[in-house]
Design goal:
globular; 514 residues; single chain
């Protein structure tokens, strides 16, 4: 249980930076949706989806490879140095290539008039790919607070620059243009549009690079080629896994513009609506990401220990992940009428994708939990196969469902494709794990909690009083508390469960007397 407590603590710290950061970035969504038309915000969602794939390519599984070999090798600094030299080389090469072939790349991305946007995001993703390794080193050294502090600095700078460029600069330009004309006018001022968002990303990424410099210091900066070969052999399936996985995650935003070539503005609008609404569902993704940051070092450190029962820790991690994930789902769905105000009313027609995407993200989180079987048995090729399966399901789902629904609601097909894909690879991974690395997960109990959450969601949806919304929120809050109390009772949470047992015992005695 001590291992689970450590995992929970680290997840909370990583989650602090992830959740606060995502929440603050989430707060920028109203700014974007009010400041820019649907089509322009669609460009942002589109490029971000592509960037998520490119960063995986530029990372080529070295993050997980570093954890694996840093745990196995005696000289973990040699592993770190080798990884760092490799990533620095490929990131610099990528920046050079995108600079040379900028216009052909922009044409291929259907953004021929926005090559500057493409270059800025290319530069940002190259630096981000490199800095992922120092962040991984902080996780390896269990410096969760340092990790969180630098992440929050990045977020703070990025948000501050967004507010400055998008809100303050137009006003300064009207009253005292001489203060900002040296950079504002050459870039085009307000006509630079969403380019200010991408410029903020470039600057904040460079700030993070500077903050991570102390973490890049090693006794001997070397690149052990024999070690690098072993790491690449281990990691290259993770590259395919990551590319397929991120292509799947961003499939809707990426593929919609290509499915409606005769209506490019309508396609960008759909991407904008879809991208804005999945920002509401991003709470589940935040939780999964925070858990992932803590879970990878946790499972590899557990695996390195001899003579210790590890399966119970793995089972508990899965169970509590689902428990917390279901609580987050209920919280978001119960209070969606409030949360929807984070985006402009022009985007509310897409709210129907929120529950679909939250369930899909929960399935993906369970799939990540299950992935330990191929990581610990060095069968990373299976991760590649599963991601390819997910990619195929996602692609087929989008190609069939999006055109079938058509404009203006085709993005709903993307949401259903995501759910089908993630549920599919979660199920297949579970079945394969039972064969290669069997872990006695508490499937029945997890299933009961899932059924309970579904019933409470249904009950909360029925209890909607349009004439008194405060009554709706009271009922839904009580239902959420009921879910938490049932979990506490059956999981025997210390202190809380004993008090709950006492309360139930008193109620039982009172009932018996009456």
């Amino acid at each position: 249980m001590a291992g689970i407590k450590s995992l929970v603590k680290d997840t909370a710290v990583y989650g602090l930076s992830s959740i606060i950061g995502r929440f603050l970035n989430w707060g920028l969504v109203p700014l974007y949706t009010y400041a820019f038309p649907l089509e322009e915000y669609g460009i942002v969602s589109y490029l971000y989806a592509i960037v998520a794939v490119v960063i995986v390519v530029l990372n080529y599984g070295m993050e997980t490879g570093f954890f694996r070999y840093a745990s196995k090798e005696k000289d973990y600094e040699r592993v770190y140095s080798t990884s760092m030299v490799s990533l620095a080389t490929t990131s610099l090469l990528f920046i050079a290539l995108i600079s040379i072939f900028l216009h052909p790349i922009s044409d291929a991305l259907t953004l021929p008039h926005h090559a500057d946007y493409v270059w800025m995001m290319g530069f940002t993703v190259a630096v981000d790919a490199f800095t992922n390794l120092p962040f991984a080193y902080l996780r390896f050294k269990r410096k969760a607070w340092t990790f969180a502090a630098i992440k929050l600095i990045n977020i703070g700078v990025n948000i501050g620059l967004n507010l400055f460029f998008i809100l303050l600069c137009p006003r300064i330009n009207e009253s005292a243009p001489q203060l900002i004309s040296w950079f504002y006018d050459p870039l085009g001022g307000t006509s630079f549009g969403v380019g200010w968002i991408f410029l903020a990303n470039v600057i904040s990424t460079l700030v993070v690079l500077i903050c991570l410099v102390p973490q890049m210091k090693v006794k001997h900066l070397v690149c052990d080629m024999s070690l690098l070969k072993k790491m690449l052999d281990y990691s290259w399936p993770l590259l395919v896994l990551g590319v397929a996985g991120n292509l799947s995650q961003g499939m809707g935003q990426i593929i919609i513009p290509y499915l409606f070539p005769n209506d490019p503005e309508g396609a960008k609008a759909m991407v904008g609506i879809y991208g804005a609404n999945i920002k509401i569902a991003v709470v589940m993704m935040m939780f999964t990401q925070a858990f992932r940051y803590a879970y990878e070092p946790f499972i590899f450190s557990k695996a390195a220990r001899q003579g210790e029962d590890k399966t119970q820790a793995y089972c508990d991690a899965m169970k509590y992940f689902v428990i917390f994930g279901l609580a987050i789902f209920l919280g978001v769905m119960y209070f969606l009428p409030i949360l929807k105000h984070f985006i402009s009313p022009a985007y509310w027609e897409g709210l129907r994708v929120v529950p679909i995407m939250m369930i899909a993200d929960l399935c993906f989180g369970v799939y990540f939990n299950l992935s330990l079987w191929y990581k610990l048995t060095d069968r990373t090729k299976w991760g590649m196969y599963l991601s390819l399966l997910g990619f195929i399901l996602m692609l087929a789902g989008n190609l069939i469902l999006v055109p079938a629904i058509g404009t203006p609601n085709g993005y709903i097909g993307s949401a259903w494709a995501a759910l089908i894909s993630y549920f599919g690879i979660m199920t297949v991974s579970y079945l394969l794990g039972r064969k290669y690395y069997p872990i006695p997960y508490e499937v029945k109990r997890i299933g009961c909690y899932t059924l309970l959450a579904a019933l409470l969601w249904g009950g909360g949806s029925i209890c909607e009083f349009s004439y008194a919304m405060w009554g709706t929120y009271i009922v839904r809050t009580l239902l959420l508390v009921l879910y938490i109390l049932i979990v506490i009772y059956y999981e025997n949470v210390p202190l809380l469960s004993s008090k709950l047992h006492q309360i139930l015992h008193k109620i039982d005695k009172t009932t018996s007397k009456s």
